[in-house]
Amino acid sequence: RAQIMPKPIALVAALVAALVAALVAALVPRRAHGFYLPGVAPQDYERDDLVYIKVNKLTSTVTQLPYEYYSLPYCKPDKVKHAAENLGEVLRGDRIENSLYSLEMRFDDQCKVQCKEIMTEEDAKLWKSRIEDEYRVMMILDNLPVGITRYIEDEKGVRKKYERGFPVGFVSENGQAYVNNHIRFTILYHKDPETDLSRIVGFECEPFSVKHTYRTWNPDKPLLQTCDPREKIYVSDSQPPQPVGKGEEIIFTYDTLFKESEIRWASRWDTYLLMADDEIHWFSIINSMMIVLFLSVMTALIMLRTLHRDITVYNQLETAEETQEESGWKLIHGDVFRVPFAYDWLSVFAGTGVQLICMTMVTMFFAVLGFLSPANRGGLMTAMVMLYVIMSFTNGYVSAFLFRMFKGQAWKMNAMKAAFMYPGVFFCVGSVLNVFIWGQKSSGAIPFGTFFVLMFLWFGISVPLTFMGSYMGFKREPLEEPVRTNKIPRQIPPQPWYMNDIVAILVGGILPFGAVFIELFFILTSIWLQQFYYIFGFLALVMIILVITCAEITIVMCYFQICSEDYRWWWRSFLTSGASAFYMFAYGVVYYKTRLVVTHKVTTMIYFGYMTILSFGYFILTGTVGFLSCLAFIRAIYGSVKID
Question: To which H or E segment does residue 139 belong?
Answer without folding.
Answer: strand 136-141
